[in-house]
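In the laboratory, one determines a bound structure by crystallizing the protein with its ligand and collecting diffraction data. In a computational setting the workflow is compressed into a single prediction: the sequence and the ligand go in, and a structural description comes out. We illustrate the idea with protoporphyrin IX containing FE.
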Amino acid sequence: MEVIYPYANIIHLILAIIFLGYVFTDLVIISALKGKFGKENDKKIEQTLGAKSFKIFPIALLFIVLSGGMMMSKYINSTAGFFETDLQKILVVKITLASIIILGVLYNLFTKLTGRKKIAFMQNHFHKLVIVLGFFIVVCAKMMFVA
Ligand code: HEM
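The predicted complex, in structure-token form:
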């Protein structure tokens, strides 16, 4: 574990930057396109971006979880315990916040693959939730080692 840990950490950090970076760009930059070029173009823009992001971000999140899980096993295991130290408690909070994002992405994948309509909150506000959770996830990631 000690040998692969630094590699898991680098992969985790780079994918976290890409994942949260995309959500931030969608919220702050891409949203500026909405309503500017007519309903028809709006739809085309959303479909074009959706098709691209659908291929990249679920996989990025999968590898964030896999690399995170690998690292987690160093701090939470049958020897070290689960919820004893401050580091473990903050890590569990971090993983809980990340689980909300993971469930949301799984829900979006499910609606996309089954052709169902997303509920209004997920259609209009999920990315806002991800960026807020993402902020606290990163804070937890750093607080784990100073607490
Ligand atoms: C959207 C989900 C997630 C994001 C955005 C995220 C983001 C981050 C970031 C930015 C760091 C700091 C890396 C560094 O400073 O080197 C980190 C560290 C860490 N993350 Fe995550 N993470 C996510 C999910 C997870 C999950 C699901 C797990 C466990 C199953 C996890 C376990 C860890 C661990 C153990 C560390 C500490 C690594 C270290 O500094 O030694 N993360 N995470």
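The two ends are 24 Å apart (CA to CA). Keep in mind that any predicted model is a hypothesis to be tested, not a measurement.
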